[in-house]
Amino acid sequence: MNNITEVIKKPCLTEKGMALQEEHNQIVVKVDPRANKIEIKEAVERLFNVKVEKVRTANMHGKMKRVGKHMGRRNDWKKAIVSLGEGHKIDFLEDL
Predict the structure, then answer these.
(1) Considering the domain 4-86 in this protein, what is its CATH number?
(2) What are the tens digits of pLDDT across the range 12-68?
(3) Which secondary structure element, helix H or strand E, spans residue 85, and what is its range?
């Protein structure tokens, strides 16, 4: 993956993600399913100008959803939990 905007899709703003950000200085982002940890680390460092210490990834399965009598499924996606270096911080909610 050449473009950093292709690697990182959007931040995952959940209660668990916000708790990780406050307590452990980690951020949670949705990433491209084909991206590996090295590409995610480089993309976060270049996009937000921070130091990344560790990247953990998880493949999330899409939930089953029902509309009337028809069953469907949401798309699978990949999330990355990125540990930031000492003294570095990213706040997604300050722009709102």
Answers:
(1) 3.30.70.330
(2) 999 999 999 999 999 999 999 999 999 999 999 999 999 999 999 999 999 999 999
(3) none
